[in-house]
From TrEMBL:
Subunit: Homodimer.
Catalytic activity: L-aspartate + 2-oxoglutarate = oxaloacetate + L-glutamate
Annotated GO MF terms: L-aspartate:2-oxoglutarate aminotransferase activity; pyridoxal phosphate binding
NCBIfam families associated with the record: PRK09257.1 (NF006719)
Protein name: Aspartate aminotransferase
Length: 462
């Protein structure tokens, strides 16, 4: 049917004049069915088919598709680019900037790329699971090379399309092998988590996390909600530097979270997008994941190298599934590959080589840790300066110390939607409407300006 219609469209035909005759009778957007009803008795089938195709081609087949809303995070950057104000600040997207507010390519990344050029590496397809050298170093970096999960080959590691792609692969695994199981996610969380689970058709609900009264962790609420979730739920946890709040549980609180998850036979699912970037130490930032692994629990961990190696556009990360036996891990890995193959076939090689060169080379690894400490240190220093400026400018007695207690790239200011809009509309400070600011996009020179904007928005906008 379809091919005969295509042939009839391609042939020079008298149908053009027929099409013209039909035009006034058909409304724009008239469907094929309406057309067929109209002509059912008066036109021969062959001609009718050809006419229907020609008319439908006049109207876009995509007519019913509505305009999607701009992405709440990436849309902020678009608006920022269009603003010409000299003091404008982009605190929307979580990407590291230098003190001059310029993007930064790490020196170790340049060195690793030079090594790759010298070696004259080819561009052959990678296997579905990714670059073997990358998969080895990424799991070791996460768990520690001497961890029993590594030594006993109990981790199924598959290279993913950065953090997002790795989360998406894990979501597909959940959808296929745990039908009906729920993922519980913190409220609030990184905006894309909900999209990922929605698109993978994995049911999710939220557990309490943020307490607006203290601008801190609602630990009791979190524990109560994790306990109340159906047994065997997946609990999505931010390994460190919770996005968007910047509020992490303390080591003692992590132990209690692990207790409850074990008690309820839930499966912990970590999102580690900031290893090394939160505290400046790769090991310290992996301690939450390692606590769960050391208890012998089966866990999922998505990793990203966007932030800690500044490889945003290279789309490099991994999904790790810790299983109770090596045999199970081998089977899980085979299924992850099976899910990846029809989605994107196999992952890109460039970022994987950079990571394996940096992490696998003692000299570059040492340099990376130094650079990461510098990046984390710059963020800590603007955090301190913003706090000092707020205290100096705001005479109301408001306690701003929550800013210092938060960790990582972000600060959750506690500003509401209207106040956040005032930040953008009046002060040209671009940020997400939930009150989150990325301190990685702030320079010391602009801390006072930002403090003025926050104090004005907080006190003068309800
Ligand atoms: C919590 C969290 N998870 C995952 C990601 C994924 O980032 P990417 O896909 O660039 O690795 C981000 C990025 O901002 C994030 O904040």
């Amino acid at each position: 049917m379809a091919s005969s219609a295509m042939i009839s469209l391609a042939s020079p035909s008298p149908s053009l004049s027929l099409k013209d005759k039909l035009k006034p009778k058909l409304k724009l957007g008239a469907s094929v069915n309406q057309t067929s009803l109209f002509f059912k008795d008066s036109v021969k089938t062959k001609l009718f088919t050809r006419t229907t195709m020609a008319v439908a081609a006049d109207v876009s087949r995509f007519e019913n598709i509505t305009m999607a809303p701009p992405d709440p995070i990436l849309g902020v950057s678009e608006a920022f680019r269009a603003d010409t104000h000299e003091m404008k600040l982009n605190l929307g997207v979580g990407a590291y900037r230098t003190e001059d507010l310029q993007p930064y390519v790490l020196n170790v990344v340049k060195k690793a790329e030079n090594l790759m050029l010298e070696r004259g590496e080819n561009k052959e397809y990678l296997p579905i699971e990714g670059l073997a050298a990358f998969n080895k170093v990424t799991a070791e970096l996460l768990f520690g090379a001497e961890n029993s999960v590594i030594l006993q080959h109990r981790v199924a590691t598959v290279q993913g399309l950065s953090g997002t792609g790795s989360l998406r692969l894990a979501a597909a695994l959940i959808e296929r092998y745990f039908p009906g199981a729920k993922v519980i996610i913190s409220s609030p969380t990184w905006g894309n988590h909900k999209n990922i689970f929605n698109d993978a058709r994995v049911p999710w609900s939220e557990y309490r996390y943020y307490d607006p009264n203290t601008v801190g962790l609602d630990f009791d609420g979190m524990i109560a909600d994790v306990k109340a979730a159906p047994e065997g739920s997946f609990v999505l946890l931010h390994g460190c530097a919770h996005n968007p709040t910047g509020i992490d549980p303390t080591p003692e609180q992590w132990k209690i979270i692990a207790d409850v998850i074990q008690e309820k036979k839930h499966i912990p699912f970590f999102d580690v997008a900031y290893q090394g970037f939160a505290s400046g130490s790769l090991d310290e930032d992996a301690s939450s994941v390692r606590l769960f692994a050391d208890r012998g629990m089966e866990i999922l961990v998505a990793q990203s190298y966007s932030k800690n190696l500044g490889l945003y556009a290279e789309r490099i990360g991994a999904i790790n599934v810790v299983c109770s036996t090596a045999d199970t891990a081998a089977r899980v890995k085979s299924q992850l590959k099976r899910l990846a193959r029809p989605m994107y076939s196999n992952p890109p090689v460039h970022g994987a080589r950079i990571v394996s060169n940096v992490v696998g080379n003692p000299e570059l690894f040492r340099e990376w840790k130094e650079e990461m400490e510098l990046m984390a240190g710059r963020i800590k220093s603007v955090r301190q300066k913003l706090y000092d400026s707020l205290c100096a400018k705001d005479k109301s007695g408001k306690d701003w110390s929550f800013i210092l207690q938060q960790i990582g790239m972000f600060s959750f200011t506690g500003l509401n939607k209207a106040q956040s809009e005032n930040m953008t509309n009046k002060w040209h400070v671009y940020m997400t409407k939930d009150g989150r600011i990325s301190l990685a996009g702030l320079s010391s020179a602009k801390c006072e300006y930002l403090a003025d904007a926050i104090v004005d928005s907080y006190h003068n906008v309800s």
